[in-house]
Structures are given as structure tokens and as C-alpha cells.
Amino acid sequence: MSERTPDPARPRTVLLRGGEVHSPADPFATAMVVEGDSIAWVGEEGAADSFADGVDEVVHLDGALVTPAFTDAHVHTTATGLALTGLDLSGARTLPDALARVREYAAARPADRVLLGHGWDATAWPEGRPPSRAELDAATGGRPLYLTRVDVHSAVVTTALLDLVPGLRDLPGFHAEQPLTGAAHHAVRAAAHATVTPAQRDAAQAAALAHAASLGIGSLHECAGPDISSEDDFTALLARAAREPGPRVVGYWAETVTNAKDADRIRELGAIGAAGDLFADGSLGSHTAHLHAPYADADHTGTAHLDAHAVAAHVAACTEAGLQAGFHAIGDAALTAVTDGVRAAADRVGLARVRAARHRVEHAEMLTGATIAAFAEFALTASVQPAFDAAWGGEDGMYAARLGAERARTLNPYAALLRAGVPLALGSDSPVTPLNPWGTLRAAVFHRTREHGISARAAFTAHTRGGWRAIGRDDAGVLVPGAPADYAVWRTGDLVVQAPDERVERWSTDPRSGTPGLPDLTPGRDLPVCLRTVVGGRTVYGRPNE
């Protein structure tokens, strides 16, 4: 690597050469020039010589792959950081294992006012049930504990935490011997999170952003709201991201809008939309997703939080205010309510205005042909999480237990969405599933229901450019001249082109096709290792000793 003394009046320039640059501008590119915070040139090695003497730094890639940085389109940053730094039960394999981890954590944190934990999933345990309140009371020595299920739509708590929330036992969703849901869950969550000190919150946010950067993630969409976090948490995160080098953070605040004053308040918080986890329903794992027909393992249809009338009012008000709207919707009944509501809003304010606003729907799992067609008609972005299918799909997975195998096979139909022209943005919903962009792509390509799988190229586009398009930016998430210099450098094996149809794979791996390759995502193969992450031309992560 060589450097020269930069002229402070001129943007710093960097030449990366001797690798593989994933760019639609040149499918055979091996080099790239960055000037300041933008991509200046992409091309082949022979032409790179003409830039070498005029740049401030030359980075010799030694065969490494350069791609656009990933965008994770659905994250809960502070909760992710708390899981990284605190009690994470996602690795617990049995109920006794989970209780032992709770006991060990409580002993190690004697000063915490409320013990916080996340990630249990009783559907994966041989006991088939969550820990009881008595078991948690014993494991914590009678201290307050808030422990969310992996989907964060229900929680188990200790008696001491219940006692901190007056009137809790009278709220909807309170169950004496079952996980708390609905209003009861929101109340205990607010009480538990209120005990997190500013120092704890700051450390959690720093840990989450540093972890994201180490995975080649250059942008996060923070999905916050009054039922999830707090305004202080949200504004502190946006301030941190603006102040310190790291991934970009785009904020959504999940609160309904009925007029211009409401919209102004959303903007004053720093949010770009009244969207994200604005709940139309809950989750399948907690039996709170809203279904047209009852669950296979419960005699009800879940919980509806918004009907079509409420959706229409929100979408119309946001559209008129020039603000992005969006909803959390998982069950087929919730998705019907959302699409019917958007249709009513379009009738009120005009289809073209609704389409131009790029409203979005998070998760969008139980889609039908009618709701997919509505997504396409109204240009709704489907913000989806392929790792959900990897974790809970398949003939023996949680989806099949909740819905029966036939309904479960209809979930997360990514190929059908793309065929209909619906824009996709991929994410993790971390800490529900981990930040893991290449794992997310693998889950999208090798879907547990084969006909729903998509090509690696389509998934990669949805996890890079798709996240930018979801916030109204069509000029980013791709390595072409003029685009923001948000990129990652990877150590990886041979590059291939993967698609669900093997005939496409054979054609696309022919060099004459001019299709840029990507790492082999076949299950069992090693995923790429991030060597460097750059955001706006600034290095925000460098792998030690590389």
C-alpha cells in the first residue's frame, strides 16, 4: 500500500485494485476509485495504472471481493446490543439449560434493578413449554426479570417484576401461568426498559453498531415506537449515528398519524416515516398474528390491532404530509386489513400519490395472490426477513405447528413477490434473528419451500440496493460512479451465479453472460469474512491483522 501527503482542499482519493468488484457498471471490474464520499470510477486492472500516481492511498485487494455494504431494513438496535452484552437465550437447547443461564446471569449482575434477557423459544425445546413464573422466581432469587420470547411479542417475567406494575393483572394479555402478550406485555416492557441507565443504553447501542459494521452492514433501518422502546432511546441512537463513525441509521417511528401536526411530530423525532413496527397484528410464535382461520394448535385467530379503516386514515394522512407510512403485518387477515386500507387511502388521495410515497410493510409473511397483487398495485415495499423461514419453516417447524403444513408452505413467497414486481428489502428484525447478511441471502436462495426461493443476485440486490430504495434513494446501494462510497471488502472463495433454476445457473456462470458472480451460498459452505467496511468513504471497521 502506498500513500502520499493529501491536499486538504481536495477530497481524499483511494484506489482499490487487484480484486473482484461487484458492479453492474463493469461485470469484469477488478478495481475501483473512491473520491471523498463517492464512487468515482469502476473498471479493470489495466486502466487502474492511470490512477495509481494520483491517489492518496492504494489498497491492494489480493483477490478480495468488494461489494456494496449491506442494508439491514429492520433492526431494533438497543435491544440487539442488550442481547449482545446481556442474557441471550437463543442458544439454549432445553428448559433446564435456559434456567441455568438465567441463574448464572442473575448471580453475575447483583446491581441490576431489573434483569433483562431475550431469545427463548420453547418450540425448539423438548419440554415444549416456557419457564414458569415459579421457576424464574427461584432462578433469580426473587428479583425482577423480563425475558422476551425470540419474536419479542410475548415475555415471561418474575413475580417481582409484576409487582412493579400496578394494575398489570387487569390488562389485556395478562395470563397467570402463560407468557404475557398485548397490553400487559407492553406495560412490563416499559417498566423493565425504564430501568436501563443512559450508560447501559449507550453501551448497548455502541455494541450493536460495531457488530453490524464488522459484518459489512453499512446502513440500518431502526424500527422504533412507543410500544417498543422510548423517544429518548430513539433520539439518542440517531444522535450517536450522526456523531460517530459507523453504519448509517435511518429511523422509523411506529405511531399513527391522523393530521399534519402528527406528521410534524414524527419528523421532529428524526424519523423519516411513521412506519416500522406499527402493529396491525402480532406474531405466529406467540399466537398473536391475525389469521382468517384459527390456528392449528389454538382455538382462536390471533389479535387484530388495526382494521382497514385505521390503516386507511394513517396512509392517507401520511401521504398528504409527504411522509412514509408502514405497518407490521404477519397474518393473512392482518395483510388483508392493510391492503384494503391502502386501497381506501388511494381512493381518497389518489393512486399515483400513494405509489410515489413508497409505503412499506414489515414481515408480510402470510401473503395470498390477492394481497401480493395489491402490494404491486400500490408499490408497497415488502420488508422481509428470510432467516424467519430458515428458523421456523419446513414440514416440522414452528410455522407448521401453528398453521398446519399446508398453510405453512404458503409463507414468505419471495419468488412470487418478485414476479409481481413488488420491491423487496431484506433484514433481520434483530435481535429476533441475528444480524447476518450472507446468512440472510442463503436463507432467501435456499428457502425451505423451494418454489419461494430466489436467485442470489435478486436477494443480494434486495439486501443492498433494496434497502436504499425503501427509503426513497435510487442512487445508492450499488458500486457505480456517483453512488455513495458505502462498501465492504470480503475474503471469500470462488464466485458463482446461483439461481433456483439450474439452467439459469449454467448459463449465468458462463463468462459471456456478463453476470457478476457472488460467493457460493450453498448450505455447508463457509460464508464470506468481512475485512473492511466503509461508509461514506470512511472506514468504520477493519478486521484485525488483515
Automatic annotation (TrEMBL):
Top-level enzyme category: hydrolase
Region (Disordered): 504-523
InterPro entries: Amidohydro_3, Metal-dep_hydrolase_composite, Metal_Hydrolase, YtcJ-like
UniProt cross-references to Gene3D superfamilies, sorted A to Z: 3.10.310.70, Metal-dependent hydrolases, Urease, subunit C, domain 1
CDD domains assigned: YtcJ_like (cd01300)
Keyword Hydrolase: yes
Domain Amidohydrolase: 57-541
EC number, UniProt record: 3.5.1.91
Any coiled-coil regions, as ranges: none
Keyword annotations from UniProtKB, A to Z: Hydrolase
Molecular function, one GO term: hydrolase activity
A UniProt-annotated Pfam family: Amidohydro_3
Name of the protein described by the UniProt record: N-substituted formamide deformylase
Organism: Streptomyces rimosus subsp. rimosus
Recorded name of the encoding gene: nfdA
